[in-house]
From TrEMBL:
Keywords: Lyase, Pyridoxal phosphate
Protein name stated in the entry: Pyridoxal-dependent decarboxylase
Positions of the L-tyrosine decarboxylase C-terminal domain: 513-627
Signal sequence extent: none
Species of origin: Lysobacter arseniciresistens ZS79
Pfam families: Pyridoxal_deC, tyr_de_CO2_C
Length: 644
């Protein structure tokens, strides 16, 4: 394995179980300590209750038979799990998974036997508070207000993953968009409700929240009987009550709104539109320019929507695309929202940061302030590009964000998170009408969200996952000096990989052409590879697929047969643009004329994809670089596969 040279990182040593299980004693000590602690808690609840299971029970043949069966099944499970994907190893640079942070793993194991259910405080008196606080920790990381005494404080909650968090973004944006129309239809007086349906439906998120606030204040001043009558009248006009068909039939000036997302968006957006009943056809995919959402194309689509009186629900920007790790211009998207909202075409902006959300820690000072591009960039070769810094700096102006603690948060599945900038809109998601309308002046933020199940898509949900997220953020606060050291390693690893790829290209010179198709924005790096002398796309794709076959998990083979794990993705002209596609093909000597949009495997370029999130890719103890090891391995395999 090649030697690495950078300095020691003692701060990293206690954070993970480690590639070799080096911290086994620490984890074991924690698990045993808190398992015992849990048992004492049981015993001390009512010590006067005698033990229900006799001390002789374990001597009974049936007890022993059951224990034997249990152990037998666990042995089989444990043996089968040896075929799992070795996410913990620095030889794994495939998908978005790695080792788990010990603080989160220990907190989760500690909490599991208490089995809290974060659906409501009755079932989770402790962990529901931790979930709401974890939401506020993430809000602060993003630059949202996190002071719960402020009426416009942010709110965040956990979900099973990024897919459900994105779904929650759609639900919230739709509720906020349609609510002013319901107020109008119900005839609520005296609160400056817009005079026509089109204006009411296209107010935009801030004006929508202000109207909701006025409605609450007005309602609170009415006599109790009147209040109940008005609540019923408004609820009956809401989109959530009527359903799409009846709502739009009653409001013929309105159409089902569109969601605008970059073509690189995750398929959870398609799922979300189907689930919500908006229909996949309402998802309009925007082209990229230079691997990022094209802000001019967004503007053109918005102009067309305005001309056609086509409402827009949400514009999505991706912070770290799943396939390439690229960062969309969040700043341009919020600028577009502000401009078009002022012109009467309001919509919300959601950032899908399922992958890249935690990179925001690199941009935060300990006091919560934003770091300058020079401060962030210290020690990096080129991160962050000005566009990337501008995107992260604009996060605080967006309406909501998805972040996946089970991705770059290094926590167990399923922990996703949804965070919105202004919590007042969340009331519109409540199942019970008395949560929708409430006197905001007398509101207690924490008391309100103790009925979490009122507002989230799920019902019963894991309190242990919430404990894991909260404790991790306490041990490693979400700023550059603490948690940020982890994503810092991943970006440094990506830069080392990028530099190493030039050595790989030189090492296989004359045998194959190797290039990084586009410089990485964050911590994913792709490689385009083409056998020397070949200009045909289908032939190059077949070769990269063969290479990838050796790098993918294969349950039929012993794990140890694999040297390294990588993943694969594709570049399509309709996603990256014709010009960008031609540039990338030329990098490895492929002829754009062999690209055929109706072809079988020549409608795209197949490339290798590497997720560089393992914290031990550069092993400072032994002076080993697994990145260089991987690139050397790749050079050997390319030469072997192309040997005459
Ligand atoms: C992973 C990912 C998702 C989906 O998240 P899950 O946790 O897998 O449900 C959505 N968007 C992006 C950008 C992602 O990377």
């Amino acid at each position: 394995m090649p030697r690495a040279t950078a300095a020691d990182r003692p701060w990293l040593d206690a954070l993970f179980l480690g590639p070799y299980g080096e911290n086994d004693a620490l984890l074991e000590k924690l698990v045993v300590e808190f398992l015992r602690d849990h048992v004492y808690w049981r015993r001390n609840f009512h010590p006067e209750d005698p033990p229900a299971i006799s001390t002789r029970a374990a001597m009974h043949p049936e007890y022993q038979a059951l224990e034997a069966r249990l152990r037998g099944e666990l042995h089989q499970l444990s043996a089968a799990l040896k075929r799992s994907v070795p996410f913990h190893s620095p030889r794994y640079i495939g998908h978005m998974a790695s080792d788990l942070l010990l603080p989160g793993l220990a907190a989760q194991i500690l909490t599991l036997p208490y089995n809290p259910n974060n659906v409501s405080e009755d079932a989770a008196p402790v962990t529901i508070e931790l979930e709401v606080k974890a939401g506020l920790q993430l809000a602060r990381m993003l630059g949202y207000p996190d002071d719960t005494t402020r009426p416009d404080c942010a709110f965040g909650h956990l979900t099973s993953g990024g897919t459900v968090a994105n779904y929650q973004a759609l639900r919230l944006a739709l509720a906020l968009k349609a609510f002013p129309v319901a107020l109008r239809a119900a005839g609520v007086p005296d609160i400056d409700v817009p005079g026509d349906d089109w204006t009411a439906f296209n107010l935009g998120p801030d004006a929508g929240i202000a109207l909701l606030d006025r409605a609450n204040t007005w309602l609170a001043a009415q006599p109790a009987r009147e209040q109940r009558r008005w609540v019923r009248a408004v609820q009956k006009e809401r989109l959530e009550f009527l359903g799409m068909v009846d709502f739009f039939a009653r409001h013929p000036d309105l159409k089902v709104p569109k969601v605008l997302a970059p073509i690189t968006a995750h398929y959870s957006w398609s799922k979300g539109l189907k689930l919500l009943g908006l229909g996949r056809n309402q998802l309009e995919l925007l082209p990229e320019r230079g691997m990022r959402l094209d802000a001019d194309a967004l503007d053109e689509v918005l102009a067309r929507c305005e001309r056609e009186r086509q409402p827009v629900l949400l514009a999505v920007a991706v912070l770290g695309t799943t396939e390439y790790g690229t960062v969309d211009p969040v700043d341009a998207v919020v600028d577009a929202r502000d401009r078009w909202t002022a012109q009467g075409l309001g919509f919300s902006v959601h950032v899908d940061g399922a992958w890249g959300g935690y990179l925001a820690t690199l941009f935060r000072n300990e006091d919560g302030g934003l770091r300058t591009i020079d401060e962030v960039g210290e020690g990096f070769a080129r991160f962050p590009l000005p566009e990337v810094h501008a995107a992260f700096a604009a996060l605080g102006r967006t309406d909501s964000v998805t972040v996946d603690p089970h991705k770059l948060g290094y926590l167990p599945y399923g922990a996703g998170a949804f965070i919105c900038r202004d919590h007042r809109a969340v009331a519109l998601l409540a199942e019970a009408a008395d949560y929708v309308f409430h006197d905001t002046r007398e509101d207690d933020y924490h008391a309100r969200y103790r009925r979490l199940g009122q507002f989230v898509p799920e019902g019963s949900k894991s309190g242990a996952a919430a404990a894991a997220v909260y404790v991790t953020h306490k041990v490693l606060p979400l700023d550059h000096a603490h948690f940020g050291r982890l994503p810092r390693q991943t970006v440094l690893a990506a830069e080392a990989f990028h530099a190493g790829s030039k050595r790989l290209a030189a090492a296989v010179d004359g045998v194959a052409r190797v290039a990084v198709p586009f410089a990485p924005d964050s911590n994913l790096v792709c490689l385009a590879i083409n056998p020397a002398g070949n200009a045909d796309l289908a032939h190059a794709n077949a070769f990269v697929r063969r290479l990838h076959d050796e790098l993918r998990a294969d349950p039929r083979q012993p794990l140890q047969m694999k040297q390294f794990f990588g993943s694969m993705t594709t570049l399509r002209p309709e996603a990256v643009g014709e010009a960008e596609m031609a540039r990338i093909l030329a990098l490895v000597g492929l002829d754009p004329a062999t690209l055929d949009p109706d072809g079988d495997d020549n409608d795209k370029l197949v490339i290798l994809r590497h997720t560089l999130m393992n914290p031990y890719l550069i092993d400072h103890t032994n002076g080993i670089s697994y990145i260089d090891g991987y690139l050397d391995h790749l050079a050997r395999r390319i030469r072997a596969l192309l040997a005459p």
